[in-house]
Write a structure and sequence with these properties.
With 171 residues, the protein is an alpha/beta fold. The chain is built from 5 helices and 7 strands, in the order ααβαβαβββαββ. The strands form 2 sheets. It has a 5-stranded parallel beta sheet with strand order 1-2-3-4-6, with helices on one face. It has a two-stranded parallel sheet with strand order 5-7. β2, α4 and β3 form a beta-alpha-beta unit. The radius of gyration is 17 Å and the shape is globular.
Length: 171
């Protein structure tokens, strides 16, 4: 259990204080479980918890680490994983105006990164990290390009095993 959650379990007064202290709720790390296709209720509960955490941050600078499952065994699990990660990503987008650090660690290039849901340019964004264990096409990065021009951005990290350009030109 994380420290902010522990504080809410001490007594009613501590719970009130913790829930009204946005700086306690500025860091969250979420890993989509590998058994993603098995329990809809646990997936829904985890997502509601994540959204509530973001709400409790109340505009304080956020540091978010979003990680997809490391292994999936069939295309149905992959589809469920993409949909679930997409929900988390959309929640992050709703709080992008106070996003300070954002790390995405995923196994493949998912469908939820599309240009219509691009991470916007933000004065608060300082660090953007994208990690993947499989190859991405250049167009997979397009949703992050606007964020990469944020004025306060200090670092952008891309960790990919293989990269394929959008087009090749023969001399």
């Amino acid at each position: 259990m994380s420290p902010p959650i522990l504080l809410t379990h001490v007594c009613r007064r501590w719970r009130e204080i913790a829930l009204s202290s946005p700086l306690l709720w500025t860091r969250i790390s979420v890993r989509v479980p590998e058994d993603i296709g098995h329990s809809q209720s646990s997936r829904s509960g985890a997502f509601l918890f994540f959204r509530r955490w973001l709400q409790l941050s109340s505009g304080a600078p956020l540091s978010i680490h979003l990680a997809g499952p490391q292994r999936l065994y069939n295309s149905q699990e992959e589809d469920v994983s993409d949909a679930f990660c997409g929900l988390y990503y959309q929640a992050v987008l709703q709080h992008s105006n106070h996003l300070r650090d954002f790390t995405v660690h995923i196994r493949h290039s998912p469908s939820y990164f599309q240009s219509e849901s691009a991470l916007p340019r933000s004065d608060s964004l300082r660090n953007l990290r994208i990690h993947s264990s499989s190859y991405w096409h250049f167009s997979d990065f397009l949703p992050f390009l606007s964020a990469a021009t944020s004025p306060g951005l200090e670092s952008v990290t891309l960790r990919l095993p293989r990269f394929e350009p959008i087009a090749q030109f023969d001399p």
